Request: fold
Amino acid sequence: MKSSITQIFRMSLPLIVAPLGGGPTTPELVIASCEAGALGSVAGAYLSPEELKKSIEKVKAATTRAFAVNLFVPTANPSLTPEQIDRAIRATTGFRQELDLPTPQVKPPYHQNFDWQFEVVMQAKPAAFSFVFGLLDREYLQECRKRGILTMGAVTTLEEAHLLAESGVDFIVAQGIEAGGHRALFEATSEDEEAPTADLVSMIVNEIPLPVIASGGIMTSGQIQEMLSIGAQAVQMGTAFLLCKEAGTSRAYREALKMGSNDRIKSTRAFSGRLARGIENRFMREIDQRPESILPFPVQNAFTKDIRTKSSQLDLPEFLSLWAGSGVQYVQSDISAIDIITQLKRELRG
Ligand SMILES: Cc1cc2nc3c(=O)[nH]c(=O)nc-3n(C[C@H](O)[C@H](O)[C@H](O)COP(=O)(O)O)c2cc1C
Reply:
């Protein structure tokens, strides 16, 4: 069971509990993951620098174990035409009427300030810094190295893996098509090659001499073994933890997950403008039929936030982003993350 990643982060099994941005990751989930022997991840991307600082402080106050902090590589604000904005507003007016919401203004900022978030991470000095959505400029990686923070970037293709390796990261997270949540594609507008996790891991391991972390659709100890046997040093699991007690997953989202199955998982740009995978619902179906109405990432994400927030408050799963991977039918509910990890550990040792 020992691999260099487990030794470096003093984990008792080769498991990273994925950053689950937008609510499911809580400091309690990170703490439970670390205390049980995995590497927990603070999902920082949607948090303000102050919120991020507080989350990290909470984790540090409760555990001395290693953890990671995760952010999105910043995207430049796209320029928009009045027609584009008009189309987006018209496509979502029906949803806003149903939810009794006013039409929002479409204006920046569309995301948190990356440099301020990054500064919080540098001050906090977690054991690892993980990122998605492309390459980070060299000076950011150098800042991490100076502080002894190991870096992990995510990829969906062999080509992205080569670029990431050349940029100087320490670990590659290979995200296969089975994964829940946003696709880690470097370019928001690229076509998705949809490589399955096992294929992607094998290709990267064969060509790139960096430790690879397999991610996407992994739910069982058998699947962890399989990924290790093809050369992954560890796995990163997200969906498996969405229903655990420590997760901040909303009630409506939890109910949808309990009824979720692989054949209902679809890729969509409807919520954020970037491809992401989750359980299909009415919002996805209707907006995906009008692709010309979808604003570019991250504008669409900011633009649909009011709809997601209100539907979460009203327990309406049809308008929520129900991110989930293809292993959704195997999610265990009403269980602690500690129990999930302990069970995996026992099975891996057995
Ligand atoms: C609800 C949800 C939120 C996610 N948020 C993030 C995130 O903020 N940052 C990130 O790097 N990955 C995020 N991911 C993707 C995970 O890192 C990982 O690739 C994925 O969960 C693996 O597939 P699995 O869900 O089938 O285990 C998210 C996934 C889910 C399901």
